[in-house]
Amino acid sequence: MKEKSAGEKLQDKLGYEKKNFFSVATEEEIKQIYEYSENYKKFLDVAKTEREAVEASIIIAEKHGYTPYEFGEKLSKGDKKYLNNRGKSLVLMRIGSGNIAKDGIRIMASHIDSPRLDIKQNPLYEDSSMAFLKTHYYGGIKKYQWTAIPLALHGVVVLASGKKVNVKIGEDESDPVFYVNDLLPHLSKEMAAKPLGEAIEGENLNVLVGGFPFRDDDVSEKIKLTVLNKINELYGMKEEDFLSAELCAVPAFKAKDIGFDRALIGSYGHDDRVCSYPALTSLMDADNDRYTVMTVLADKEEIGSEGNTGMQCGIYSDLIDMISAGLGVSPAIVRANSKCLSADVTAGFDPNFASVFEKRNSSLVSYGTTMCKFTGKGGKGESNDASAEYVGFVRNLFNENKVSWQTAELGKVDAGGGGTVAKYIAKMNIDTVDIGVPVISMHSPYEVVSKADVWSTYRAFLAFIK
């Protein structure tokens, strides 16, 4: 082998180059990557809504010795607790053996809600021999992507009696699926002339749910009655029960490997379960109990982290207060010394749409988990911009633990932008930076990630809390 020149040696010493993790991973690491991804795919298929993600996460946590936390309960060293917040967000707490006044709390915060079609409160109607449910889309979607694909209905209904009924139909092979109609290309001249974002209107995202008329000539809306009869048989519902229902339509697709080499995963809901699952499992697998750790699986991020299950809710600060009180430490001191990885996805560089990316500062698929020093839009508006000191801390932590990682921004400066929960945690006087998995086709009904990046994010969390 030819000896490197002086310039090449200097370049190796002073330069920086991203590396594809698959190209440098050992055979044992590759085996671990693929095995971990199989369990992640199973999680995706059973956790398509925030409620289902909470339920699936609790099952995992209880297998590892976590027990329910009653709000206000005193916490002590060694405790492993979880708080189920209204069935829609989850906080897991492991009280460490170390000095919380000095170490603070290691916080891993992600979200478990995803864009979808929410069913309106008075949704069911019949028109032209078809029955539909009216929807109100949730989060940032491209509306045209939600037409002409199989959909499943998920959620809960609180009946007039007060009984809560779970709804999940469209996932099993024997289940029917549901559908949003699209217009045939033969008659789409006017639609095709519209801007892409206006071609499909939100009020036209109506879910097709029936087509068989009830056999009674005295009934005016026969197909609607057939649908009502079916949902009454299945769930005990009457039409009025939609008023106290929380139902949504989500893609009926299963998580599947993408590509001949199976290096990628296609699924609905990678944003942000691809970060939530590593945050959860790293806490379960961590074998060092020095740090007190709080893993937050929040709701409502896709609509601004609002409400009493979103990251802006005071419950997270209240929990820090309660942990601190149980250990006899000022919560202000705990917050000042705490550290957070805000775990949310970023846009993976896509060569098919290269014009909106600045490639030097974009995340590349399979190059590892991605640190975003700031998000926001334009001139860093609405962003947490992490300090150089904290970025340096996380950088050294990842390097010392051989975590495959990279840095990125969310596209070109003026191309658009987006936010995460980081700014809400930082407002509590907690050092915070974003890390997460690069995603292709983010917010679409079927997103794509690399197995290498999922594994790298898991490894990053392990390094952070060990």
Write the layout of secondary structure elements.
Blueprint: H1 6-14, H2 21-24, H3 27-46, H4 50-63, E1 67-68, E2 80-85, E3 89-94, H5 100-103, E4 105-111, E5 116-127, E6 130-138, E7 151-158, E8 164-169, E9 179-180, H6 189-192, E10 207-210, H7 222-235, E11 245-251, E12 256-258, E13 264-267, H8 270-285, E14 292-298, H9 315-326, H10 331-337, E15 339-343, E16 346-347, E17 369-372, E18 376-377, H11 388-400, E19 405-407, E20 417-418, H12 422-426, E21 431-436, E22 438-439, E23 447-450, H13 451-465
Parallel strand pairs: 1-2, 4-14, 4-15, 15-21, 16-22, 17-19
Antiparallel strand pairs: 2-3, 3-14, 5-6, 5-11, 6-10, 7-8, 7-11, 9-10, 12-13, 13-23, 17-21, 18-20
Task: Walk me through this protein's architecture.
This protein is an alpha/beta fold and 466 residues long. 29% of the residues lie in helices and 24% in strands. The strands form five sheets. It has a nine-stranded mixed beta sheet, with helices on both faces. The model has no long low-confidence stretch (mean pLDDT 96).
CATH class annotation of the largest domain: Alpha Beta
For the residues shown, what is the average pLDDT? 96
- Could you tell me the number of beta strands? 23
The share of residues in extended strands comes to 15-25%
The gyration radius over C-alpha positions equals 24 Å
* Shape descriptor: globular
Helix content range: 25-40%
Report the total helices. Answer: 13
